[in-house]
Amino acid sequence: MSVAEPLERVVIKVGSAVVAPGGRLDVVAITRLVDDLAGLRHQGSQVVLVSSGAVACGFRALGADALPTSIRPKQAAAAVGQPALMRAYSERLAMHAITPAQVLLTADDFAHRERFLNARHTLETLLISGALPIVNENDSVVFDEMKLGDNDRLSALVATSCDADMLILLSVAPGLLDRDSGTVIPHVRSIAEARRHVDSAASSGVGTGGMATKLDAAQIAVTHGIPAHLTQGPTDARPNPIAQVIAGVDQGTRFEPDTSLNVRARKSWIGFAAAARGVLIVDDGAAKAISRKGASLLPGGIARVEGSFEAGAAVDIVDRGGTRIARGLVSYAAEEIERIKGRHSESITEILGYTYADEVVHRNDMQVMKDANAQVD
Ligand code: GLU
Known about the structure:
Elements: E1 9-14, H1 16-19, H2 27-42, E2 46-51, H3 54-58, H4 71-94, E3 100-105, H5 107-111, H6 113-128, E4 132-137, H7 151-161, E5 166-171, E6 187-188, H8 191-194, H9 211-223, E7 228-232, H10 241-247, E8 253-255, H11 265-273, E9 278-282, H12 284-293, E10 302-306, E11 314-318, E12 324-329, H13 334-340, H14 348-352, E13 366-368
Parallel strand pairs: 1-2, 1-5, 2-4, 3-4, 5-7, 6-8, 9-11
Antiparallel strand pairs: 7-8, 9-10, 11-12, 12-13
Helix pairs in contact: 2-4, 2-10, 7-9
The structure holds glutamic acid (GLU).
């Protein structure tokens, strides 16, 4: 086995079907997983674990014999299962003298810049202090429509928010299977191409995601320069998949990072995680300047404002034809933009009595869409 350089920061995602198959905590799998995580830590890497399994570990204790599908029983099951899951990890991590830290996130934590920064700082502080953050979605309090839903995408958002060097997705599948030959595809360079091998509805039974959400996660990661690796969780024959991935000898699927893009974590959040709170319809000149030159959006280029939002909110920037050309964070609230739209930046103070910025959306706060044909609903 070749010994590779230790990676600085690794995010590992483990699915419900690995840690709680059939709705029962798999103690052997968790022990192996923790041993494998500890090995990575002892090589000097900082590790974040994103673990599913709260709902799967909890529903039986509440008297159900099948995984709940509606929101209330799911929330209740997660409230029971999450501490059970944490207990299992804590007991085994203690044997390696590693302190676990529970971090429960919601989609909103990624949708609001302040909360995003807060979550990011928390993770950063935990990692620097030597703790091992164990992340899950805060299932027992989030409403269905506010949910990220699957931990695959959550893990990718966590990886981008803490600037990870690699995202490893541990699943019951050995990797991405070739639709025709049924064999694992070892390398993926184009996620769009990889999608043709995937049936979007298939899932593992106890988890929420399937191969489609794993590709979504890989796409978020690689777009931000983070390689992703999809492989099977620990088994008798292969108890240490993480060590194998790091050593470069794993048989799963490697998603190569898109080095041409390398956008920063800030832009990743804006483009992928932030929920748009409104729409700014811009004139042709502004649309061209944004999509071709990556220019900032000035008040003069704004034709119409839709929605009610505060300064700092994420909005979609749309051309007159309804095509979304960018998403960005506004320096002004909707009602302020309503008053300064179509006007020169120099007259902002005259109109509002103050100026926060010359730009309504600064280029550094903007993610220009690559696919300029994406229509807005
Ligand atoms: N957050 C859910 C849980 O812990 C799992 C979501 C998923 O399966 O991706 O039960």
